[in-house]
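Researcher: I'm preparing a figure for a lab meeting and need a structural model of a single chain. I don't have an experimental structure, so a prediction will have to do for now. The sequence is pasted below. Please return the structure as tokens so I can convert it later.
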Amino acid sequence: MLASFTRATLRVAAALVGVLALASPAAGATPPAANCPPTAQAPSPDAVQAGMRNARDRGFLWRIAKDGRSSYLYGTVHVAKLDWAFPGPKTMQAFNASDTVALELDLLDPALQRRMVEAIAARREPALPAPLTQRLQRQAQAECIAPETLAGLGPMLQIATLSSLVGRRDGIDPAYGIDLYIAGLAHAAKKNTVSLETPELQLDTLASDPDMPLDALVESGLDELESGRARPLLNRLVRIWAEADDAELGRYESWCDCLKTEADRRAMRRMLDDRNPALAASIDALHAGGKQVFAAIGSLHMIGPNGLPALLAKRGYQVERIEPAR
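Model: Understood. Here is the structure written out token by token.
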């Protein structure tokens, strides 16, 4: 089950880690431990200039045209390597051609940061049995996560946070998430920046399945983390994004090992199919209101007949995939 849970919650986990890091200096503290993963570092101004100069297109970009104007869809990943965070030439051209940047959540919005923290604090989940609590603590220690980073989070949010951090030894970190860097570019360029969803809605994707007890879900999550299965799967997904491999992304359901049970399928519907129509409607409303939109949204929202390109085509948009510059 957690094969789907890990991926279904990666977006929320990355958002959570980002908000905690922005909201509290203590969240970034790393307790002393052997074999800790590298700590994400802010690039120097020279490194930023070099990164922008040498950037190549990654991810998935579409032009969507209607009413004589173009907007753009950009499929992102929420954890990445630092070198990947700098937009390539075609991505930057689309960004510059847009006056509005639409994100699932704008994590650089102070009001949204506060709302996320408040929403997390307001959530109530039942206590776990002591053995599961101890396993969570050991997993946090293995990932060199300071106790205060997870303090106050419910068990599912702790699993989600840990799941988003398993790639750090490979240089894959939520701190380098593409959405976060797009948000930084948007604010620096003083573009109109909007959140398409709310913290409450994103946190609701972690809601317990009524047909699967919380203890079983957390235990499954810990099994995935402790076994090491989560790390190669994350690496595969971000590599597909980095190489802009449409075909492999489109086959996601065949290799993700995430749709084996009805609970898995419900989790996938909750993560994607149930949210995509509202995301498409919000992008359409911005475009219809005269905006030229650069909508940066997780890549899994782009695939299949219920993906955003297909849904916007049904709304009358001419949808054109923009291939990366090679």
